[in-house]
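Q: Sequence in, structure out?
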Amino acid sequence: MTNEFIIQITDVNFRYERENVLEQIDLNVPRGAFLGLVGPNGSGKSTLLKIILGLIKPQSGEVLLFGQPQAKFKEWDRIGYVSQKANSFNSGFPATVFEVVASGLTGKLGLFHFIGKDQQKEINAAIESVGMSQFSKKNIGELSGGQQQRVFIARAIVSKPDILILDEPTVGVDEKNVKSFYNMLEKLNKEREITLILVTHDIGTITNKVTHVACLNKKLHFHGLVEDFEKFNTDDLSSIYQHDVHLLSHEHAHIEEGGTTR
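A: Exactly. Output:
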């Protein structure tokens, strides 16, 4: 991992009308990192993603992408984004897995550009990297929520972005498949060398996958290496989340909000 920062956020503040949503956010994402962005509902995580993606502008502060001021940044194909699509996807949409992933090249090739052999190889490689090769010719509507989400990730990475941002990608994924899903993300980070930002509530499951953690609740209460985040105890986390948070002991510490210790 290099010292180069792909994203640099300095003193960013955002409010909707009179409600402060983000306060004095300073966040640097180094190239090669796998950052877990965590925090309670309403903590500003989605708002922060929208600011990074240029969908909304903060009232104050600075955002640099690849060292450039965001207002001057033009290479948006270097940033991939996957939302919570699996939960609301139209199951009747008439497209195969291959066709959905191929649509991720539209920005580079143009809407009606012919897909040549080189592009076919790139599409198949992206599908293989998310473990969906055997479903390449299947209609996407026939797949499970977790499988669909893998296809959307393949679509996002087929254009070979430098960074991939995922907003709670395991929504709609069966619990038994969540572990393999995170293994797939870890593999993309290490083997494809894609910098990842993962918004999630599943803190415990990801602590053995991510390299960095940012814990947000309007303010950034923690930003650093995962090893340092794992030193937090229940009182520390309850203070950040502003309600009871309990650590559940599994393979790694797991967090349950407002629940009981098991």
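The mean pLDDT is 84.
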